[in-house]
Amino acid sequence: MDIQSSKIELVKLILDIDNTEFIQKVADFVKREKADFWNELSLPQQNEIKKGIDDLENGKRIEFSEFLKKIS
Fold first, then answer.
1. What CA–CA distances, in Å, run from 50 to 26, 27, 47, 54, 56?
2. pLDDT tens-digit profile of 3-33?
């Protein structure tokens, strides 16, 4: 079965459900799956991640044990 057929079958199944709470859970799940976590991060968080990636690409690394010492 191809993806389009699967989607149609899923819609048919959902249309037969009268449980409002279940429908809301399905809708919430679909919305969460569509959301890109990156867009949910604040600009400072995004910048920190980008900086970390840049640091790694430029060879700026420390051993994990050293990192643990810094945060302890």
1. 33, 32, 5, 6, 10
2. 899 999 999 999 999 999 999 999 999 888 7
HSE-CB of 23 using CA atoms within 13 angstroms: 10
> Does residue 71 contact residue 63 with C-beta atoms inside 8 Å?
no
Q: Would you kindly state where each structural domain of the chain is located, as residue ranges?
A: 1-35, 38-72
- pLDDT given for residue 26 in this prediction: 92
* Alpha helix stretches (DSSP H) within the chain: 3-15, 20-34, 37-40, 43-57, 64-71
pTM: 0.45
**10 Å Cβ neighbour count for 41?**
13
